[in-house]
Amino acid sequence: MSEPMPQANHEAPPRLPTDWKGQAMQKRISSRYASERRFRLIGLSAIVMSVGFLAFLLISMLSAGISGFTRTEIAVTFDFPKAPIMVDPAMLDSANADRLLSNANLPAVTMQAARTALGKKGEDLLSPSAWVNVREAIKNDPGILQRVETLSLPASTEIDIAAKGDGTEEAETAYARLDEAGLVSSHLNMDFLTSSDATDPSQVGIWGALKGSLLTMGVTLLLSFPVGVLAALYLEEYAPQNRWTDMIEVSINNLAAVPSIIFGLLGLAIFLNVMHMPRSAALVGGLTLALMTMPVIVIAGRNAIKAVPPSIRDAALGIGASPVQVVFHHVLPLALPGIMTGTIIGMARALGETAPLLMIGMRAFIASPPGGITDPATVLPVQIFLWSDEVSRGFVEKTSAAIIVLLVFLLSMNSIAIYLRNKFEKRW
Amino acid sequence: MSARNVNVFYGEKQAIKNVSIDVDTDNVTAFIGPSGCGKSTFLRTMNRMNDTVASARVEGNITLDGEDIYSPAMDVVQLRARVGMVFQKPNPFPKSIYDNIAYGPRIHGLANSKADLDNIVESSLFRAGLWDEVKDRLKDSGTALSGGQQQRLCIGRAIAVEPEVILMDEPCSALDPIATAKIEELIHELRGRYAIVIVTHNMQQAARVSQRTAFFHLGDLVEYGVTTEIFTNPREDRTKDYITGRYG
């Protein structure tokens, strides 16, 4: 090189060699280690705190709700031959058993037996629907009508709460008396999972709300998944890059952030008032939630489709696949795991939604489970909300039990979806 | 295939200027030239892959067996089955080896029965020089093969639909020398049955593999002729400079 190097600035003093082993450097090293330790500690405590909150939620829910799955039962002796039941045991095999037994005045029989066994006002110690259990016992074994039989019948709410340690003084005394006589026992309450809403806490069940949730989720999935996936495919593969497409993109992204209660207003205004669909039905609830879930699926779908490398598309096009074949044979199978993740997130959100469903009327007292998607129904979160509003103390544990059922439902839904997603995941 | 007075524009920029060329089955044609000279762009016009780029515009006349491939009457999808393509980076489908080869015949309805399809797969893999290596693991994923094997799989996939022309865009640039040698051998075997056009950066490869060579520079077709002539006695100065390594 023929040009001279640029001259150093002669004004500045020459630099001393750095003392890497000196005091100052050692201090820098130890303060750097200390700040890295602090950073790790902060991260760890954040995780511990989150797990702690989650554990706290689960433990408090479980401890409050487990007792909702058990109920106290009282043993009552029935002298059937002496009871005024005019039913021929032989005819009880047929399907009309319920009708025949309804003529047998079982409530009165039960009341009488309770008074005999438990003293005056004995029927107050039993649940108002205890006679149904008597009916079921007769149906299972018509032979008991010829003998003296002791049946285990559900106790009233007051006794049940007293057994669980939370009752009034009167109830506690009555319970203590029964306990001494050896007449009470605690059993798993299967009726909770098979019956619907009721006014008396000892009779309520979660099945009505569970079925309502199942139907609503079914409608939501059937509507939002195909529409969302196809919309994502169109926006990514076919839509031209112009202002209209940009506006659609922005609208969909904003839709995903809209508060859910506004979708409830939308459902009320359009599905109920304009289209006159049946109020409180799973169909309307499903439609409203589908509107809410679809943008989430579109956004997740677009990201999943964008992630499919262009080399796969080129290869498919190069072999002579039409654009539709490229999308459905190559792009969609590879994008499916990402789409399913979006669907899981959207459906989990929809399962827990209460506000929009309240607005379209799914808040009524529904005493029997819905037959189809056009029957009035309620969903699990709404049921929890309604029960938590009740005055009677018996509802407290039922609310927690219902929350446990909701969590189990959510977990199973997510597990199915994650299993399906893993099945479709292809190794590259 | 024949091209006459082809101009290609990406928006305002002209990438190919007035190129005319012929390819046939008897001679393997090589496109050589420095980076960015337009050889890949021109290759992609031959099977209309430029259609996927929104700003690309093609003028001029390109014919396959006398039919203009840019006329509205030509079905692009069928064109791409008749003019196959092998890409620079091997891109087998994430399916089994069998399904990779069988996909083309399936979508074009070329097999009448499962036995037919099995035959097509076997003969394509055999002609691609891959049959012995994979015949007992046809259900394995295509992506589990080595780079050289994947590229031979892609060539097998292209020949499974019995194209008339095979376009190869730098097929060996991502492979090691031994795999490269195998692919070059394969090209020798395929010559005569398919018209092969190969774009390559490697001049020795062009000299080994082709009988006709076209030299591109900045979008112009500078020289086109017999390979041995181009490499020993080029007519144009630019060609001479490129071949002797003065640039590119």
Characterization of the model:
The complex is a heterodimer of chains A (428) and B (248). Chain A is mostly helical. Chain A folds into 2 domains: 66-189, no CATH class; 207-424, MetI-like fold, CATH 1.10.3720.10. Chain A contains 16 helices and 3 strands. Chain A has helices at residues 23-65, 97-102, 106-118, 130-140, 157-163, 169-180, 191-194, 207-238, 243-255, 260-274, 282-306, 310-318, 323-351, 355-359, 380-388, 394-424, and strands spanning 70-79, 148-154, 184-188. A 3-stranded antiparallel beta sheet of chain A has the order 2-1-3. Chain A is extended. The two termini of chain A are 53 Å apart. The model of chain A has no long low-confidence stretch (mean pLDDT 85). Chain B has 248 residues and is of the alpha/beta class. The model of chain B has no long low-confidence stretch (mean pLDDT 89). In chain B, strand 4 (56-64) and strand 5 form a beta hairpin.
Name the descriptors.
heterodimer, A: 428 residues, mainly alpha, MetI-like fold, 2 domains, three-stranded antiparallel sheet, 16 helices, 3 strands, 5% strand, extended, B: 248 residues, alpha/beta, six-stranded mixed sheet, four-stranded antiparallel sheet, 37% helix, 25% strand
Produce a short descriptive summary.
The complex is a heterodimer of chains A (428) and B (248). By secondary structure, chain A is mostly helical. Chain A is built from 16 helices and 3 strands.
Question: What's the structural blueprint in terms of helices and strands?
Answer:
The complex is a heterodimer of chains A (428) and B (248).
Chain A: H1 23-65, E1 70-79, H2 97-102, H3 106-118, H4 130-140, E2 148-154, H5 157-163, H6 169-180, E3 184-188, H7 191-194, H8 207-238, H9 243-255, H10 260-274, H11 282-306, H12 310-318, H13 323-351, H14 355-359, H15 380-388, H16 394-424
Antiparallel strand pairs in A: 1-2, 1-3
Helix pairs in contact in A: 1-16, 3-4, 5-6, 8-11, 8-13, 10-11, 11-13, 12-13, 13-16, 15-16
Chain B: E1 2-10, E2 13-22, E3 29-32, H1 39-45, E4 56-64, E5 67-68, H2 76-82, E6 83-86, H3 97-108, H4 114-127, H5 131-134, H6 147-159, E7 165-169, H7 177-190, E8 195-199, H8 203-209, E9 212-217, E10 220-226, H9 227-232, H10 237-243
Parallel strand pairs in B: 3-8, 3-9, 6-7, 7-8
Antiparallel strand pairs in B: 1-2, 1-4, 4-5, 9-10
Helix pairs in contact in B: 3-4, 3-6, 4-6, 6-7
